[in-house]
Specification:
By secondary structure, the protein is an alpha/beta fold. The protein has a single domain, classed as NAD(P)-binding Rossmann-like Domain (Rossmann fold). The protein is about 45% helix and about 15% strand. It contains seven helices and nine strands; from the N terminus they run βαβαβαβαβαββαβαβ. The strands form two sheets. A seven-stranded parallel beta sheet has the order 3-2-1-4-5-6-9, with helices on both faces. Helix 1 runs parallel beside helix 2 and helix 3 packs parallel to helix 4. The longest helix has 29 residues.
Length: about 280
């Protein structure tokens, strides 16, 4: 057995005997979340598109002595989201946690430069994955009268240059707050983490993986405006003045998923600074 998957877990075993599905767990925040919950005792089901990176995370969890299954597929498809839940339930008999981490901005540019194909790709990646996975998991959680769902929004909901992505993530905020009220009496909690910029050093798969959409060539004044915006917002919107680490996001997800947050539902927790919505 490997010593630790996440040494920051401080020996907690909050997920002993539980089953957690983590989408986008082949790398980045998803992989960190899978390792953190496995460190705390959860059996993990990885929902991802890329077999190689998913297998690496599974190998780490297995070496630690944990249990882990993989369901491969593009989760903006209802069929694949449904198959992910079926895989988890068949393997472990229950589903206690769903962390909808899959997603992420693809392009960074002013709205007038987005093509219709780019807009559709952004919405599919960062909204429909969470919507379909929530819809697919809720019947299982209703049947067992318990469960915790964590969606991932972003501080960029109030930013520039990522309008389709911001709209998709704002949709996840609405998905969280509305669904939380609908299922609270059934023993199911739904919350949301809104990360600021986060460094993912293990990213092997580009965010445009599997997306065959060409991007327009941007004029120099647009590129200059983007560079200025990045420099200004990094210092003004993030109090700590740095990018977050994946384990810092995973820690927040683990808290909200755990019984430590048993009286918290329908909330959006910014991690890193900034308010993810203006109301």
């Amino acid at each position: 057995m490997a010593g630790e998957l996440d040494p920051r877990a401080s020996g907690a075993r909050r997920f002993e005997g539980q089953v957690a599905i983590i989408t986008g767990a082949g790398q980045g925040i998803g992989a960190a979340t899978a390792r953190r919950l496995a460190q705390e005792g959860a059996s993990i089901v990885i929902g991802d598109m890329v077999e190689e990176t998913s297998e690496k995370v599974r190998a780490d969890i297995k070496e630690f002595g944990g249990e882990c299954e993989i369901s491969l597929g593009e989760l903006s498809s209802w069929k694949n989201a449904e198959a992910l839940m079926e895989t988890a339930h068949k393997a472990f008999g229950r589903i206690d946690v769903l962390a909808n981490v899959a997603g992420g901005t693809i392009w960074f540019q002013s709205f007038q430069y987005y093509t219709p194909e780019q807009i559709e790709a952004e919405i599919n990646k960062s909204f429909w994955t969470a919507m379909w996975c929530c819809r697919a998991v809720v019947p299982y959680m209703i049947e067992q009268k318990s469960g915790s769902i964590i969606n991932i929004a972003t501080h960029a909901v109030t930013g520039r240059f990522r309008v389709p992505y911001a709209a998709a993530k704002a949709g996840q905020i609405g998905l969280t707050t509305s669904l939380a009220r609908e299922v609270a009496h059934l023993g199911i909690r739904v919350n949301c983490v809104a990360p600021s910029g986060t460094a993912a050093d293990d990213r092997a798969t580009p965010r445009n993986h599997g997306i065959d959409v060409s991007a327009p060539t941007l004029p120099q004044d647009e590129l200059d405006d983007q560079a200025k915006y990045r420099q200004e917002t990094r210092s003004s919107e993030v109090p700590m003045g740095r990018r977050g680490e994946v384990y810092e996001q995973a820690s927040a997800i683990a808290f909200l998923a755990s019984h430590d947050a048993s009286y918290i539902t329908g909330q959006v927790i910014p991690v890193g600074g900034g308010q993810p919505y203006p109301f």
